[in-house]
Specification:
alpha/beta; 6 helices; 27% helix; globular
Length: 262
């Protein structure tokens, strides 16, 4: 790719969530001014099929622009798991069998129909893995292809969220979305453990309770004094526990940078 192409190439970054589609253009690694948009989605059942239909409609509206896409998905549609190291991870076919066995043990046999991927952790280290309904993943890819677009990446929102703050080297972070919260510890530039659960609109109180419950299973959390907080819920809280330090976020789509998983 030439220098001119690297500077001028634009990517349409999209975040698909149950009740909204957020987007922004990025050029030369930065959001383009005044390019952000939000499309509300009427979706009382939080169905990904309804959200996917909204994505198709959005791409039809932007049909005259063939910028490639980078897509993040709400956590509620992405099952996350830390999987132990196994030599099976060194081969693609055996890695898939191993990942499916790990997810099926936690999420049941329905996980065997999911598309699974893991990060590229060092040899011998546990890996962060993600499972997404194969029909949802294929639907996003088909929507892009129908409009002549290249899909650069499809990944859970936790990936862009973590990469956006990794430079600050927080020991842990919390990601809050509408109806969902995720807690994670980090080390060496990687997520090393995580906890995910549902939450209500008054997530400020729930955040502290979730951390304390997780602490019961992982006493090493006692050593962590500060937790970076990313709020994508759309419901700001009057106050959050002092442990959690809010990091301003322009919007979910703005978190998209380079992709960890294609």
């Amino acid at each position: 790719m030439s220098l001119i192409e690297r500077v001028t190439r634009a990517t349409l970054c999209l975040h698909l969530a149950p009740h909204g589609l957020h987007g922004v253009l990025r050029r030369a690694g930065r959001p383009v001014a005044d390019s952000a948009f939000h499309l509300p989605i009427l979706n009382p059942d939080a169905s990904w099929e309804v959200a996917l239909a909204a994505l198709r409609g959005c791409l039809e509206q932007y049909g005259d622009k063939k910028m490639p896409l980078a897509v993040s998905l709400a956590s509620r549609w992405c099952a996350m798991l830390m999987v132990p190291w196994s030599g099976a991870l060194l081969d693609r076919s055996s890695a898939q069998r191993f990942l499916h066995s790990q997810f099926a043990a936690v999420y049941g046999d329905g996980a065997r129909t999911w598309r699974l991927a893991s990060d590229d952790a060092p040899y011998g280290k546990p890996r962060l893995a993600c499972g997404i309904d194969a029909a949802l993943l294929q639907g996003v890819q088909d929507a892009a292809a129908a409009h002549g677009r290249r899909c650069l990446s499809i990944e859970p929102i936790v990936g862009p969220a973590w990469r956006s703050i990794a430079g600050g080297k927080p020991a842990a972070f919390a990601l809050v979305e509408a109806g969902r919260l995720l807690l994670a510890t980090t080390s060496g530039g990687r997520i090393t453990a995580l906890h995910s659960q549902s939450c209500g609109a008054a997530w400020g109180d729930e955040l502290d309770r979730a951390w304390r419950r997780w602490n019961l299973r992982a006493p090493q959390l006692d050593a962590i004094e500060h937790v970076a907080l990313l709020d994508l819920s759309g419901v700001p809280q009057d106050a959050v526990p002092v442990r959690f330090q809010l990091i301003p976020v322009a919007g979910a789509a703005h978190l998209m940078r380079e992709a960890a998983w294609a």
